[in-house]
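Students often ask why we bother predicting the structure of a whole assembly rather than each chain alone. The short answer is interfaces. A chain on its own may look different once its partners are present, and contacts between molecules only exist in the joint model. In this exercise we take two input lines together and write out one structure for the complete complex. Read the inputs first and try to guess which parts will touch.
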Amino acid sequence: MAKNDVKVLGAWPSPYVMRPRIALNIKSVNYEFLEETFGSKSELLLQSNLVHKKIPVLIHGDKPICESMIIVEYIDEVWTSGPSILPSDPYDRAIQRFWAAYVDEKWFAAMKGLRSAQGEERKAFLDQVIEGLALLEEAFGKCSKGKAFFGRDRIGLLDIAFGSFLAWLKVTEKVNGVKLLDEAKTPGLVKWAERFCADAAVKSVMPETEKLLEFSKFLAAKMKGAPPPKN
Amino acid sequence: MASSATVTANQLIIMAELKLFRTWSSPFPLRVVWALDFKGIQYDTIFEDLSNKSSLLLQYNPIYKKVPVLVHNGKPLLESLVILEYIDETWKQTPLLPEDPYERATARFWAKFGDDKVLPSIWNVFIKQGKDQEEAIVTAQENLGFVERQLTGKKFFNGETIGFVDLAFGWLAKLLSLWEEVCGVTLIDHEKFPLLSEWIQNFADAPIIKESWPPRDKLITKYQALLEVYTSKEAPK
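Now the answer. The structure tokens for the assembled complex follow.
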């Protein structure tokens, strides 16, 4: 397939944007990365994602696909000659999807809360984040069954869902002066994180921690100066 | 039923065990009921009282402590849309999702939109008052506008027959008119949302769906009581 038949609309700091890029790398699919300018939305984005106007969007031919994990499943279903991202057993698939949804809806929600919270509220979010990591450590043990990834021998759906947050996790550790992934408490995840970040499909799209830290400071400053949100 | 010398009939029944944990009123387990009934699959139902959760439920769903939980051969499945995909992948008759990957992605998108945006925005209309409610109505109707357009040229979201997205939006077909009645706000009228109004009728009256609804009067009482709790919490505006 010609390179310009597959496009990803996104931005380098976004963990959600990383997900389809990792999936396409796993499948060895060439694609064009169209980077959105921070603070504005391109015509193409607005047309391709009428409902949410958000990144990432995968444009395959002339068809837009939205929502990062839905895009990952689409990629897995279209490019069947490459390594599978989802396991073949329906129960295993359900477990991967369950934890991917948990990571987004519960765990990262607590991470985001941590970013802007103060005092008691901050401690509460931190506790939630750490509690979540303990659950994910346990899930890692059950899913990996002693192998390298949640997807066992290869990076799978849950690796992509959770692993895409690792750069932000490192930034959060620095900003808050805490260790979230800990050799004592989450040994499995510590090693998994190293393997994930080193993987060929991930390396080229995972932002450097320092660069992301600078960006997060820029974002924080912008948030302070920004008008209060409408809703 | 064939059974080897070492496996008794009872063991076969236990091995093929399918149990659904639900409540009498929650719309999310209903999605699972519909999916299983559409596929003609036998299962046992366990009704939970969420104010007094069974130890089994807490064991199967320690993180969310919610229904539905589907237990298949002793293994728990959680989150209604995840369960629906599991059912579709395990039992191939009467498919819920289309075969084409793009159509599947589209179906998943709208089901997610329903849960992430439509339902919370409509719930906001139900529980808020005054200016907050007015703003909630605008958001809810914007969301419903997107949903309305998805029905263009189709009887159901899935086309001629009920599918994944219809089951995902099924709560709308029963609860919306109920909530509208209880809180006195009309969100969907036939003029502004002709396709959605038609879909609600077609879905609610469809075989299997029709027989599954919890008793309306009981639901009205439940939501009236819930609304009172919210109204007493809200400061007068």
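Check your guess against this: The longest strand of chain B covers residues 18-22.
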